[in-house]
Design goal:
heterotetramer; A: 327 residues; alpha/beta; Rossmann fold; six-stranded mixed β-sheet; 32% helix; globular; B: 308 residues; 12% strand; binds thiamine diphosphate; binds magnesium ion; oxidoreductase activity, acting on the aldehyde or oxo group of donors, disulfide as acceptor (chains B, C); magnesium ion binding (chains B, C); PDH_E1_Alpha_Subunit (chains B, C)
Chain lengths: 327, 308, 308, 327
């Protein structure tokens, strides 16, 4: 099953299970079913709880927060994650703040879904990975879809914390297969440990390098790991957290302590990255065992061009990761 | 000119003790705040609703406990008209024990039962639409009431909210306190067209109320609120008011002419003139009450908050 | 029904070769794009303006080289009507040498002389106000023209811009291509009230044009543009159009009924019927031209861009 | 002279010198002259080039970008920097992108001024330091006002780069004196080196610790340095960059290489901070000479409460910095 269908099933299950769940977004109702078809069938099955909205990204996140404040649970799809910029105020100054600024805990079970990332030639305003800009907002949790984590469980976890959440979903990942039963492919296996997927080569030898990456990087990370193993006999372990922020490294601390080299890869442009935040958390813990600073891989410090040959130069490729490990 | 004012004074309808008492309670509360600021006993900032107290008193008489109220920076009157808890509000503003939000939110960020205020203009309207949609589904007949100023009509969020409210038939009552100024900027310099026209452009019912008479305002609002409740549709109720005080504290740069006009538009001297005995009695009652209330809060220890 | 259409057909006024030729050039350009996509020769996304080609042709006839044009996602016609550079545009869309923005911007992000498009709906209206204010000061008589769709009226930025444009008397011509749909959502489900009413609410002049006749549209637009230029004030010109193609590619979920209606509203068959010889001649001319143009661009090497 | 007056003079000078300069913002014209009086007198002197706007933060940044695009130079005041969240889309997806996404360099000389920070009891939505959320937007430069840097030169530098810029201005700093002629006070001196102010104790001994902080932290950094020197005989040097992003550490690399301990202090809340970005830049350069990871000081991971006694607990104080140095 592909990630897109899997996520769609998860949304169905959520709507089935809880009449308080509402889904809002531009063009999400049938027969269109959303720009990426993630909401396909939802409106047919769940009627008025699935609402196509006007083009009002700030407004619909506000409406979602209002539903959540009053006792519902809201999922808002931003057609392209780039437009979450239009909802930045609602997320920063209302939804997240309301959870604590009234002097007591106020639940705001709101999930803002952001189809994210490039590699589809959509151009500079439809290809960004904006995770880093949402990091460090008190009361706002950031998650990213991966092929390893069960989407239904993930959405349930997000609602359970009762904080507004942003879920980043790589647009190319939608088209990839989900991984189940611990199997990735002929070479790699995975296990889930406390919100993290640990992906390792069959045999599970102690790794030369630990790679940390959000779910959207999976394809490129695996390709790099395969090359490194076969061409360079370098063993990597890949760690994929479901929650990007706040990040809890405890479940994988053991894995990290053993690593001489740690590489963090992500899709956002260089500068002020998630990787810098991961390093902030890990450097103090691992200072003694690290042979050098954690290595950060990201897209170039650049807008994302439209033409495929130019886009490729800017975005993270398997080779970008491979070179960082070899550096 | 004086003739004209007396005309309006004579026009005031008899006022219930409860209403005038509440208006005066709010007035004394706000005045006490400004005094505390002057004496350096208040930290931070505040926006008093001097001159506009009658609006929330009129509105609150129409609200059900299950309705939600969204308030803004100028929210003390909105709060006190709905919740007769001046101690809790002053404690909030002063960061003292018994504060409604433990002193965390302060003057502009209060959440109590179904009353919520925020300090970012316009932001709460889409939120109110979401709340209204839930109310419509779960407790039909209940509404979300959102107070905004005329200046807030500069924010795009207002229009995103109006559009959705009308499309989705959200029971939303937008109360516009049109005081013809935003901070220092006259409405003529910040708002083109009119609020009536803007509402109409979104297909949203609009009604403007010119009176300072709390009974008249309530009477004109009543059918509007009923439409919101029974027809599930948003209504914009615009009420002409005058800001009798500064925007915040000591930041009034209006001309003497403008200030005189604002003072003339204030409900306070009119009610004083129209109902001298009732006014004097209630005013003294409320003055004394607020004075005691301030003394009480002043001796309280600092509020406590356990950071989550 | 057929009678009614023929009525409208007969109503078309004689069209200049230059205009009809440009409309057909854009039509063939857009069709070529969809073919290239089908064949897997185009990467990314695109939004063709099939059915709406006559609008920018009508508008561009009224523009001065010093005017600015702001375009949106559906901007090929806007560009080609103003700049007869289909090679440069196709190269842009395909990332080939000679691309107007070196292949960096692609279909939705083009900046050439005083033409600029962006892919985030509504964002360019406040920008256009800023540009218009500069034009008014430096070269009075010049204007900023911004194309937006009906769906874009959901965005708050539209209203922030209208308000400022009217308050500050910005020479801004907003051309609304009202095709009664936004991506997949019918306008009835995304827009309450009306565009006319919304403009009026901001005190902004509005005029709606129902015709598909390029001359009529231009003639109705001419006095509006003149008002913008001479009176320094914004105008919203709303033009009823039909989207004859998909939103992007292969994503048309409209019912057969809706599709038939859209096809009937298309200017293309009407002009074909009304002016068969002229149409056939120009159509063949443009078909051949675009075919050669595509062949030319297809053999070009990839565009080059030096990352700053 | 106080920083507020100094900045006001700089704006006057800019408007005097260049008829293309425009200033927009809410309530900025006389007699009000802006919420913090930074624009006092500007409209009286420069008339229609100084414009009070409606409450439309997104819109006015867009208008500023339009002016800049067409050939003017625009300065937009956001009354409280917190509301820059409403202009996030205009900055991210239009102003900064336009400088490069059209395949060639497009100048957008736009300065967005953001009164920033707490310590005035304005509460959770009027006290934030949002610098970190704007880091790493290609084409967007971030600056911060300091008592050491000449404001006129600073504004000129910002315009000269022709990128949209955000200028963060600490609200309490407004009330402090500017430092000139290399003198800070009885104990401290400063010099300017390539966009950085280097502040050192009289005598200029090699420091035990290097403190890096944006200008808004100056008062608390100096207080901490004084205490550390007098009570603990620990010598600190303070480095204050005028440009926060992209950060150019080259001019102070010599100072940093000598330091065993480096502390970065800032006012934003914890998580995904500017300090993490500074560390990303410096760790690779200084790995060998550092005794431990760069230490980061920031506000708590919390909204900023209104009550003074609660606000104090959350925000960075001199003592927070002192303790980080001693840790
Ligand atoms: C988004 C936003 N922009 C600016 C401000 C600062 N501000 C607070 S009140 C105010 C004026 C509001 O005017 P209006 O809506 O007419 O309300 P009034 O103060 O007159 O009651 C301004 C500019 C704010 N709080 N939020
Ligand atoms: C801010 C923003 N939200 C959503 C989109 C995705 N999107 C692109 S076009 C479109 C529909 C626009 O409708 P309309 O304005 O009527 O123009 P039309 O496509 O009909 O020409 C949508 C939702 C976008 N580009 N920008
Ligand atoms: Mg007002
Ligand atoms: Mg449309």
């Amino acid at each position: 099953m592909r990630v897109a269908e899997h996520l769609n099933e998860a949304l169905h299950a959520l709507l089935d299970a809880d009449p308080a769940v509402h889904v809002l977004g531009e063009d999400i109702v049938d027969p269109y079913g959303g720009a990426f078809k993630i909401t396909k069938g939802l409106s047919t099955k769940h009627g008025s709880r699935v609402i196509s909205t006007p083009l009002s990204e700030g407004g619909i996140v506000g409406v979602g927060a209002g539903l959540a404040l009053a006792g519902d649970r809201a999922i808002v799809e931003i057609m392209f994650g780039d437009f979450a910029a239009l909802a930045f105020d609602q997320l920063l100054n209302f939804a997240s703040k309301s959870t604590t600024m009234y002097g007591r805990r106020v639940p705001i079970p709101l999930i803002v879904r952001c189809p994210t990332g490039g590699r589809r030639g959509y151009g500079p305003t439809h290809s960004q990975s904006l995770q880093k800009h949402f990091i460090g907002i008190p009361g706002l949790d950031l998650y990213e879809l991966s092929p390893f984590h069960d989407a239904h469980a993930l959405l349930a976890t997000m609602f359970a914390r009762q904080n507004p959440c942003v879920l980043f979903e790589d647009k190319v990942l939608y088209t990839r297969r989900i991984c189940r039963d611990g199997v990735v492919d002929d070479l790699f296996r995975f296990e889930l440990v406390g919100g993290w997927a640990r992906v390792y080569a069959d045999g599970d030898l102690p790794p030369d390098c630990v790679l940390i990456a959000p779910g959207g990087l999976t394809d490129r990370a695996l390709e790099a790991m395969r090359d490194l193993l076969i061409d360079h006999e370098i063993t990597c372990v890949l760690l994929v957290p479901e929650r990007l922020y706040p990040l809890d490294p405890a479940p994988v601390m053991q894995v990290l302590r053993g690593a001489g080299t740690i590489v963090v890869a992500e899709d956002g442009s260089a500068g002020g990255t998630w990787g810098a935040e991961v390093s902030r958390l890990l450097h103090p813990e691992l200072w003694a065992s690290l042979s050098g600073p954690i290595r950060l891989v990201s897209a170039a410090d650049s807008i994302i061009p439209t033409a495929a040959h130019l886009e490729r130069e800017v975005l993270v490729q398997a080779d970008t990761i491979r070179r960082a490990v070899l550096a | 000119m004086i003739g004209a004012i007396q005309e309006r004074v004579r026009a005031l309808t008899p006022v219930a003790d409860a209403d005038l008492g509440r208006m005066l309670r709010i007035r004394h509360f706000e005045r006490a705040l400004l005094r505390l600021f002057e004496r350096g006993q208040l930290n931070g900032t505040t926006h008093t609703c001097l001159g506009q107290e009658h609006v929330p008193v009129a509105v609150s008489g129409l609200l059900d406990p299950d309705d939600y109220v969204f308030s803004n920076h100028r929210g003390h009157g909105h709060f006190l008209a709905r919740h007769d808890e001046p101690h809790a509000l002053l404690a909030e503003i002063m960061g003292r024990a018994g504060a409604v939000c433990n002193g965390v939110g302060g003057s502009q960020h209060v959440y109590h039962e179904r009353f919520l205020s925020t300090g970012v203009q316009g932001e709460s309207l889409p939120v109110a639409v979401g709340v209204a949609l839930r109310l419509k589904r779960v407790t039909p007949g209940r509404l979300a009431c959102a107070y905004i100023g005329d200046g807030t009509w500069g924010e795009g969020s207002v229009y995103e909210a109006l559009n959705m409210a009308q499309l989705w038939r959200a029971p939303l009552l937008v109360v516009v306190e049109h005081n013809r100024i935003a901070q220092s900027t006259p409405t003529t310099a910040q708002l083109s067209g009119s609020i009536a026209g803007r509402a109409a452009g979104f297909g949203v019912l609009h009604h403007r109320i010119e009176s300072v008479d709390v009974n008249v305002i309530r009477a004109e609002l009543a059918p509007l609120a009923a439409v919101v409740r029974s027809e599930f549709r948003p209504v914009v109720a615009e009420i002409a008011v005058h800001r009798a005080g500064p925007h915040s504290k000591g930041d009034d740069t209006r001309t003497p002419e403008e200030l005189r006009e604002a003072a003339e538009g204030d409900w306070h001297p009119r009610y004083a003139e129209a109902f001298p005995e009732q006014f004097a009695r209630l005013d003294e009652e409320q003055r004394a009450f607020i004075a005691r209330m301030v003394d009480d809060v002043l001796i309280r220890p600092a509020s406590e908050w356990e950071r989550p």
